[in-house]
Amino acid sequence: MNNNLQIGPDGSLRHLLSTEGLPAEMIRRILDTADQFVSVSERDVKKVPLLRGKSVFNVFFEGSTRTRTTFEIAAKRLSADVINLNVAVSSTSKGETLLDTVYNLQAMDADMFVVRHSQSGAPHLIARHVKPGVAVINAGDGRHAHPTQGLLDMYTIRHYKKDFSGLTVAIVGDILHSRVARSQIHALKTLGVPDLRVIGPRTLIPAEVERLGVRVFHDMAQGIKGCDVVVMLRLQNERMNGALLPSASEFFKCYGLTAEKLALAKRDAIVMHPGPMNRGVEIDSPVADGPQSVIMPQVTFGIAVRMAVMSMLGSP
Amino acid sequence: MADAMRGKIGADAGMVGIYTGGAWVAERLHRALGLATPLGHLAVTLHRDDFGRIGLHRESRRSQIPFPVDGREIILVDDVLHSGRTIRAALNELFDFGRPKAVRLAIMAERGARELPISPDWLGAKIEVRPDEDLVLSNESGRLRLAMVTRP
Fold first, then answer.
1. A315 falls in which pLDDT band (50, 70, 90)?
2. What ipTM was assigned to the predicted interfaces of this complex?
3. Would the CB atoms of A36 and B95 count as touching at under 8 Å?
4. pLDDT(A216) > 90
5. Range of the domain at A27
6. Contact B47 A49 (CB under 8 A)
7. What is the pTM assigned to this prediction?
8. Which of A131, A201, B29, B81 could join B107 via S-S bond, C-beta 3.0 to 4.6 A?
9. Which residues contact residue A111 at a Cβ distance below 8 angstroms, ignoring those fewer than 6 apart?
10. The domain spanning residue A250 has which CATH number?
11. How far is A194 from chain B (nearest CA, A)?
12. CB atoms A49 and B53 under 8 Å
């Protein structure tokens, strides 16, 4: 897929579609910009006027309350007008094509589209067809990418670990279906993480994932040893009944993060999860609520990172 | 300037300097006046009115006001007053932290060409500058130096 769409000829951010192909310098710029917005969220008045008069359309072809809400909060704190469209239950069910929906919204003077779609590549397609000056943010497409989640995870890791160059990071669980994992892997490699691991059963690790520069472990105890960062992924319920996994409890036994398994990582390791969590499936409650968990700060940082991306895309 | 301000400022007044030059000047004034409340700093990037033209500045400094703003007299300090737009942005930023009792403005040097109805309560010096020149304050290991620089 063409990722050059993301960076304009002057080096500025035009769309955010994937962390793949995003230069390290651009990732750092987004994280630095997010720093400013973290402090905005701590004030009495949690609002700045950068996107005043701009219209942000949240176009969700696939349901998601949490992600849509965080984008909505981010846009509102930048003073943009936010329009939420749950397209999954409207136009497309009447037969309208993806691009026709977008052209219609563009005719309503949208400045920015936040798009979630179950088909990989849908946000790219939209980005190629919008007018110049209109920006597209991928809020998750199929199994492909979820770049703002990947970036907020980078922000969280940088916040707690300062530097990426000496880190050992493990991503655990259903890598195969995870757009979050893919976005994390590309960003972590770009930022120079030397030891990046994926841990999971053979059925949930994509073929040839090693080519992305990761080490594959099927044994959790081995994979988690010496890690600075442990990222747990949600095991999607709909996968559990198929042929890929015997049962949720079996998965928890092998790959669920418990205090005993976490003890094998570094003493100051942090535990992350993109949410929503399945307690007792991929993560044990005492770990999710424990002192090493940074799952709630991830949510808070997510708003600042989305404000950073939106304000950069709203720059002329 | 500190002499002119002494006695005119309430005991619990808070001082904030605007990054970068205003913060340096505020440090001096704060020390000279011996204010009890710690010094605050304002970054005005998020309230600038030229975002629509030039976009977001990469700014690592953040506003930090280590005292409650509500109901307090605030002394706002900047190095150079030109159009007044920075002060407008700083006022907006300041009000995001609360509702001050009063805001007074202390400026080290004014160069003219104001574009907004904003005027200093205390002014160090008025300096005539050509439109193609800037007044720039620099800090060389603690020594502040004000210079006229021709715009490239």
1. confident
2. 0.78
3. no
4. yes
5. 4-146+300-313
6. yes
7. 0.90
8. B81
9. A51, A54, A55, A56, A80, A133, A134, A135, A314
10. 3.40.50.1370
11. 27
12. no
Beta-bridge partners for A257: A283
Average pLDDT (A86-113) is: 83
Cα–Cα distance measured from residue A147 to residue A139, given in angstroms and rounded to the nearest whole number:
7
Per domain, the residue ranges of chain B are 2-150
Residues of B in contact with A48 (CB under 8 A): 46-47, 96
Q: How many CB atoms lie within 10 A of CB A192?
A: 12
Q: Model confidence at A153, in pLDDT bands (50, 70, 90)?
A: very high
Judging contacts by C-beta atoms under 8 Å, the chain B residues touching residue A40 are 46, 96
Q: Is the pLDDT of residue B41 over 60?
A: yes
Q: What is the mean pLDDT of chain B?
A: 92
Looking at the predicted structure, is the pLDDT value of residue A244 above 80?
A: no
**Residue A45 CB-half CA count within 13 A:** 17
Contact B46 A48 (CB under 8 A): yes
In the numeric block, the tokens 């088909």 are attached to A119
What's the 3-state SS for A167-229?
CEEEEECCCCCCHHHHHHHHHHHHCCCCEEEEECCHHHCCCCHHHHCCEEECCHHHHHCCCCE
Q: Mean per-residue pLDDT for A216-221?
A: 97
Q: Which residues of A230-247 are buried (b: 16+ CB within 10 A; e: fewer)?
A: bbbbbbeeebbeeeebee
Q: How many domains does chain A have?
A: 2
Neighbours of A263 (CB within 10 A): 10
